[in-house]
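Notebook B, p. 112. Complex prediction, attempt 2.
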Amino acid sequence: MKSEVITKGIKVNKKKSFFKRYFGQFDLQMMVIPGLIFIFIFNYIPMYGVLMAFQNYDIFEGMMGSEWVGLEHFKMFFSDPRFLEILRNTFVISGLKILICFPAPIMLALMLNEVKNMAFKRTVQTITYLPHFLSWVIVAGFAMSILSTDNGSLNIALEKTGLIDESINFLAIPEYFWTIIVSTNLWKSIGFASIVYIAAIAGVDPQLYEAAALDGASRFKQIFLITIPSIMPIIIIFFILEVGNLLNAGFEDLLILGDSAILRSVSDVIDTYVYRVGIGSGRYSYATAIGLFKAIISVGLLTLANYIARRNGNSLW
Amino acid sequence: MQRNWFKASALNKNFKKGLKGMRKRRFHWYLLLVLLTVGIVIGCSDSDTTESVEEETNDSESDEAGEEDDLFVLGEEPLEISMFGNYDWYTMPGWGDDVATAWIKENKKVDITAIDGGGNAEQKLTTMIAGDELPDFIWTDRGASVERLREGGALVPLDPYLDKYTNLRDWFGEEGINMLRSDDGKLYQFPNWYNSSPFGNAGYVINKGIYEDLGSPPLETTEDLYEYLQLVKENYPNVIPFETGIDGQGINVLYSAFAEGESPANINNVAVQSGDQLTSIFTDENYIESLQYVSKLFRDGLITQDALTQDQDMVIEKVTSGNIAVFASASPTDHARTGHYNLLEEDSDGGYFMIHPIHKKGLDPNEIYPGSYNMMGWNVSVITKGAEDPEKVFAFLDWLTGPEGQASLIFGPEGEYWDGFDEEGFPQFTEKYYEDPEGLAKVEEDTANFQWNGNSNFLDTAKAKFEETLPEEHRNWTTHWQNTITWDTQYDATQYLNISPIPESEEGIIQQRVGEIFEEARAKAVYAQSDEEVEQIMAEAETAARDVGYQQLLEFQTEKWQENLAIMAGE
């Protein structure tokens, strides 16, 4: 390759060689084309829909007949009196989820890795990952009946142990909401998320542990010096994805558990707002504008997280 | 990416020589693929043009239909109609699967197919509009959803048919028709369960066993109620003294106790009448007082602590098991009726009964309205431009709302439970009607989801006539309390019909924001720790609402309301 570049002029050669190379490896390119076509049709063509964000989209007139309004829907969202509150909730709930729900499965995986009794290990793994398969409607239903004032098991337990005198209405006190939503999320997701890490840990070369043990490294030393560094690339990749998802603070969980008006000041995030105000009342342009705003920020965050990770040599791309 | 590229090309180099001869053929493959893609894109965009052509032909057809003079008689030729119920919960049962519709299908040669919303009706409707595949008629709520369709030019005006098929005009009346007319002066909506006399079930249901056990204290004023609830709490620690139903409906019902000549309809409108203006509910003294009362009940543990968070199942469980002392909601009879019969089984002296609405001392008890109704009934059917022959669809709906249609749908085919009509035009019930109440109830239950244009004026009169002939203990519990209490204490809110703006409009956006401020303020007020805090919450809500343009919304609503009053006055 190098000699070719040198003998024929650089600019001309590059262009020529692209097509040359392209058709030269046509058999391989053929395999890529169906995928590209698929992405083009289902991911790129529908993207013209974001134009709606700049229109007063009229469902009867369609895209062509609707009136163009520029950035009005964005302005409307930014000037909504609830805007700051919604943005805060989104970041706080999402941040708490990253802070707590992200490291938790890693810890679970590390702990399970130290368990030598296989039967016990498998049982714990199965029990912790089962909640993942329950829909949010069911999980939220559990949470509601546990936290209910009338016959709720948590209140009964607290009353019987003499910790409180009167039932606490957990789901009507805004201060408790974030704790409730994060812990239900943790319960639901911890087992399933840990599977990846358990698999990664299983791939670590056992010779490393043997050598460390010979050198006198304790269990904790082995975890911190061998296991964690070995699975670091995976942790970082998942972290990047998680950061890219920062504006997705959750939807079903918040919609079901945080629906009451008293909780709205702490439970309303961008997605629930879009659903209620945009889709719920047929304001498609408004919903699209907020969705576009969200997407742009998400791409930015993802790029930023990847840039930081790349400096450590573990980036996604 | 780039690294991979070079790897691939290096790999490819090895194959290059042997594959040279095939390269040309592969190039054709590539061309074919490109052409296919282009073909797909063009194919997709093509549909636009065909749609617009269809629209035009539909227009001309509906015009012709209006000019035709010969009457379409149901049953002369087969008629196929498609419908869409614009509700998430709605799934039409098979047309002809029950005795009533089987008879209609066979004798009137009408076959109805439904387009199912699949649990997300709004989305399905939007898809149908965007794809221009509207069904013949849509069954939906009045107001914004109809207005949106009308403004988009998707609806057929019904006026040309009103004089040809007269059941609607005869039973619903000219005043009602005028109220339902849209801004352009035309009628697009076919009402359901319209009624000229009061109806509705809002009010207070009392647990008889507990009430009598506690010495049957008077329950007339808000003070009586407070004392009674205290008594319940002391003596029955496991019973919920005051149950409010879902969304804290009972809290709205309590508002009526403080507002003479008003109804909880004000709460739904987020506006209170004051002279000829609609004014802020946040500054309304009656409303603030009612919230202070509710928050006191709540603080003292007299109201269900889940009032704003519980779901329907929790309410049903409590009410049907008799685990409540007082139950107030927009329609407490629904579940109290089941609960009543449950409690009766346990104790023949138990059960539920209703009381005359609670009032604040000093107010006229006869001017207290815990609920409201309007003459337009529940919802409407609209005929769309997607209908091939709108006149025939109207003819069917009109027949269905008439005596023969209603009697067949609710009481089953002629000859079983009824036979012919009396001189006043009401069905003459047969002996089987008295002897087989279960079978009769089954007919009505099976057709519940076909009752698109129920005619309360006709059915209530027919049923009341029958009910009168029964001894009291055999009368239906709900019917009994409807006749003795609830129907007399419902407020005629017809004047407030359609005063809500369209969601996308400027006022609609204000309404949505004010609505959220209101909901939050109401919830905060219920949980407030003192009367002063309630006042403060409402004052803050007032400021917040003013900031998002509440006044403009109130002016819009006032204007619409005044228009309604003018129409009702017969102008």
